# Entry
Amino acid sequence: MTVGKKVLELNNIDKTFGAVNALSGIQLSVLAGEVIALVGDNGAGKSTLVKIAAGVIPPDQGNILFDGEPVVFRGPMEATRAGIAVIYQDLALCDNLSVVSNLFLGREIQNGIPLSPLNEEAMESKVLELLKELNVGQIREIDIKVGNLSGGQRQTIAIARSLIGEPKVVLLDEPTAALGVAQKVEVLKLIRRLADRGIGVLVISHNISEVLEVSDRVVVLRLGKVVANFETKKITSDDVVAAITGSKSFN
Amino acid sequence: MQKQGQVVKLWFRSQLTADFSVLPVGISLLLLSIIFQTLNSRFLSGENLANLISQNVPLALIATGSVLMLLIGEIDLSVGVVSGLAASIIISLNVSNGWSPASSIAIGVAVAAAIGLSNGFFVTKFGLPSFVVTLAGLLTWQGVQFTVLRSSGTINIPDGFISSLMSTYLSPSLGYYCALIAIFIYSLSIFNNFRKRKKAGLKLKSVRGSIIKILLLAFIALGLVRLLNSNRGVSGALVFLLIVVSIIDYITRRTRFGRNLFAIGGNLEAASRVGINVKRVKVAVFIMGAILAATGGIFASSRLLAVSTQSGGSDLLLNAIAAAVIGGTSLFGGRGSVWAAVLGTLVIGFISNGMDLMNFGSETKLIVTGLVLLAAVSVDSVLRSKYRKRG
# Structure
C-alpha cells in the first residue's frame, strides 16, 4: 500500500441549516491510496460532509482543495468530472439494464455523432477487464440484468461503475449496511483494492469492527465537529465509541 | 431426458426474464391464427390479410409512439385525438383550401409536434403526471378538431396523394425484393455483430440460434409476400410501417438516446444522477409520440377516404395503449420493444378481424380484447415480481 499526497482537502468547512450548525470548522484531508472511515452518531454531520465534498450542496464557509488546487463545485456532475465519485446507499442502478449498460450509463462509448450506434464491444471488453482487475469473481455474466443480482453483487457493480470515470477519490455511504456476512467481506476487500489502486477512499460506516478492519484512519464527527482523527492501528473499538459518544476527549 | 427438460426450462426462463420477449405474444398470435383458421379457412387468405393489414397500419403507428411513452414510464392519452386533429388539419388544408399535399402534411405534423412539445413541457416543467396533462389535452384538442371541421363536419378525400397512401401496392416481384432486402440487412447485422465480437475476443452468441432467427424471418417474410401477392400485393403502407418501426427499434436499442429511455424508465433518480438530461429526453419522446400519432392519423384518413369529427375517436387511443402492453411493453416503464407495438396490434387485429369473419358483434370483440389485455398485464406483473431475486 502506497499512501501518497493529499488528493482532497476540506479546510474550515462550515454549514448551517437555519439555526442548526450542521458542520463547523471541519478540517479533513484524504490521501491517495488510503481508506478513511468517517464515523459519528446520527446527526453528527457525516452525510452533510459527503454531500459538500460531492458538490451536492455548497459549504457556507471554507474551501476545498482537489489535487492541490482550490475548486468550487456547482453541482454533483462537476465533482464527478473532476474525479470525485460517490456511491450512495441506494446505489442508483437501473435494474432493467445489463451490467455493462449500468457501468457505462451516461458515458457510453460512441463515436460522437448523434444517433450513431454504441460501441458495445468496446464497453464489454472494458467491463471484463475492470472486473478482472478488481478480482471480483462472483460476477460471471455481464449481459445479465442488474435486477437479477444479489445485494453484494449490486454493491460491487456500483463501485465498479464509479471507477469507469477513473476517479481520484471515491466516497462510499454505508456500503455494507444491507449485506450478509460473506458479501460484506467481499465488499470490504474491494474497498481495500480501490486504495491499492492509489485512490483516496472515504467510507461512512456505523459498524465499528468493520471500520477498524478496512480503514487506515478513523475520523470521528460529533455534533458537526471533528473530535478525533485516529490512526486505525493505534486504537481499539472502545476509543472510537468513546469519541462518538463524547465520553472522552481526544484532541 | 431430465437434463433436456432443464435446458428447455432455462431457455424459457431466460426468454421471460429478458428485457423484452416475443414469446408470450408470439404464442398468442400462433394460437389465434390456428383457432381462427380452423373456424374459417378464409382467415389466413391473402385477401383477408391484406384487409387486416390496411385496417391496422394506423393503429400500429400510433401504438409505436405509445411504446416509447411507456418505456420512459409515461403515458399519452391524447394520441387518438392528436391523430384525428392532425388528419383534420391536413385534409382541411389540402381539400378545402387547395394547399399542396406536402405543405398540408408538413403543417399537420408540425401542429402534432407542437402538441407533443406542450405535453412534455407541462410534464417536465411543473412535474405534473402525464396522465392528467394528456387527459386535458384529449379534451382540448378534441374541441380544436371540432372547430377545424365546424363548417363541414366531414371532408371527403378525392383521388390524390393522400388517398393513394393506403391504396398503393407493390408489384409481386418488388414485394419479394423488399422481403429479400429485409432478410439481407438482418443477416448482415447479425454477421457484423459476430465479426466485431470475435475481433474483440468476446463471448460469441450461438450460431445455431442466429441461423434459426434468420430462417424464421425468411419464412415469415417470404410467406407473407406470397400470400399478399395472391391478392393485390404488398401494400406500400405496410412497407412504410415496417421501415418506421425498424428505424425506431434501432434508435431504442443501439443508440445513447435509446439507452437513456430505458434508464429513465428503469430508475429515474439513477438516470438523472449520471447526468442524463431527463427533461429533454422526455420532451423528445412526447414529440415523437405525437408525430407518430399524426402519421397514423394520415393513414387512417387515407383508408377511410374522409376525415370527420369521429376521426381519432372511439377506441383508437385505448387500442394503441392495449397493443403496446399486449405486445409485451411493461406499464411500469423500462421494459419493452417497439416491435411490441406491431405484434400487439396484430393480436388486436386478429381478434377483431377473426370475430368479424365469424359474425360476432362488437360486444364480444370488446370483451375478448379486454380479457387478452388483462392477461397480458398480469403476465407482465408476475414476471416482474417472480424473477427478481435480491439478497
